[in-house]
Amino acid sequence: MIETFLLPVTTALLWFPVVVLLVILPVAVLSYRRRGRAGGWTTLVVYGFLFYLLAAALQTVIPLPSNPNAYCATQTYASTPQLRPFYFVEVVSQRARGDWSPAALLRNAPLMSTVLNVVLLAPLGFFLRYVGRVRFLAATAIGFGVSLLFELSQLTGLWGIYPCAYRLFSVDDLMLNTVGAALGWGVAAATGRFLPELDHERERLRYGGRVTPSRRLFALLTDVVGCAVLIGFVLGLIILFGGTPVGKAPVVAVLAGIWFLAVPMVTGTTLGKRAMLLRIGRTDGRPAGPLSVLVRNGVLFSPVWLGWIALQVEHWSVFERPSQLLIPLGLLVSGFVVGIWSPLAVFFGDDRAPYERLSRTVNVAVSSRAERSARMDSTMVMPSSA
Questions:
Q1: Predicted local confidence at residue 78, as pLDDT
Q2: What confidence score (pLDDT) does residue 383 get?
Q3: What sign does the CA torsion over 85, 87, 93, 95 have?
């Protein structure tokens, strides 16, 4: 039984890095907008909660029987739901056979299964109270809903993915899971004073105005991922309406130019920077003009557009066309400036990158609407001096 319990946990450990890669950008965006930073105790709690959800979900669906056809042809115990409340008490008593010693209790598999059903959603109630400040009745209702989702997944064979129900839908499991969520909420209410306080307002006021290298990196990654999604979406529409992806390089170039040049030249920031509450400004405090943005992002993404130009060359002949040497030389220089010099300056030298020095621009943190409203409210309620 212990091996069956540990298998979902070990599986969750293997899949958790994939989950982190999928959610790291959305989590970072929400963290910077709500707290002014992406690290700290809150981030550790959030990722701990994600790991718990993954492990809990896997706990209810694996292990899957290895031979679906043979299993479904011979096993029918899970095809009918168990709807008798407190049936687990009878099963535990039958297995105990009057022996309630500690050693016998540890060998009582139905009792251990009952305890695990209570423990399964206890962390959910704890997180709901500690992180979300959810009230008791709401947390209990959420626990019941999550448990019902798990039980229905078992009853339907993972919603039709598996050819039959391979685990029993039990009303006792619903009851025990819900009780566990309620107990977890109670533990959080009792121990919350001993845990670090999750004060988003204070963190935002403290860290929101800082432009850290990690914040800039997340903004750049958000821009790259967002632009890639846009390009994929547009090319998908072209193919859907009868086009072909071949020869669509100009479409990619236009979309990338709009994202990284046209939008920031008009608005003063890219969509990724806007998500991280950043904008491009001049070193003298004025907003960056279109020319400054063009120089800045043109140099920053020079390895990309120079590489694109190199791929468009059909025939390389540096002896006949010596000007072609400018492309690899430009790639070499831009690769050094953007790939080596800039990271060293920003991450290790606490200095401006070369493309920032050339364009005389910097990243500037901007306040969110919530922060501006909070500051306005605090100003309005500030008592006047005598």
A1: 78
A2: 44
A3: negative
Number of neighbouring beta carbons within 10 Å of residue 300: 20
Please, where are the H alpha helices in the chain?
2-35, 40-61, 68-74, 87-96, 102-107, 109-120, 122-130, 136-155, 171-191, 200-207, 213-240, 249-257, 263-267, 271-275, 290-300, 302-312, 326-336, 342-343, 354-359, 369-380
Contacts of 78 (CB under 8 A, 6+ apart): 154, 155, 164, 165, 166, 167, 168, 169
Instruction: Please give the backbone phi and psi of residue 82, each rounded to the nearest 5 degrees, phi first.
Output: -95, 110
DSSP label of 325: G
Residue with tokens 């501006």: 372
Phi, psi of 119 (to 5 degrees): -70, -30
Residue partners of 224: CB distance under 8 A and separation at least 6 = 272
Mean pLDDT along residues 30-37: 90
Residue 242 and residue 227: Cα distance in Å, rounded? 23
Length of the chain: 386
First to last CA, the chain: 73
Q: Please name which of 216, 208, 207 lies closest in space to residue 369, comparing C-alpha atoms.
A: 208
* Residue 282: strand, helix, or coil: strand
- Mean pLDDT across the chain: 86
Q: Which residue has the higher pLDDT, 367 or 214?
A: 214
Q: 3-class SS at 80?
A: coil
Confidence of residue 373 (pLDDT cuts 50, 70, 90): low
354 in Cβ contact with 287 (< 8 Å): no
At 315, the amino acid letter reads H
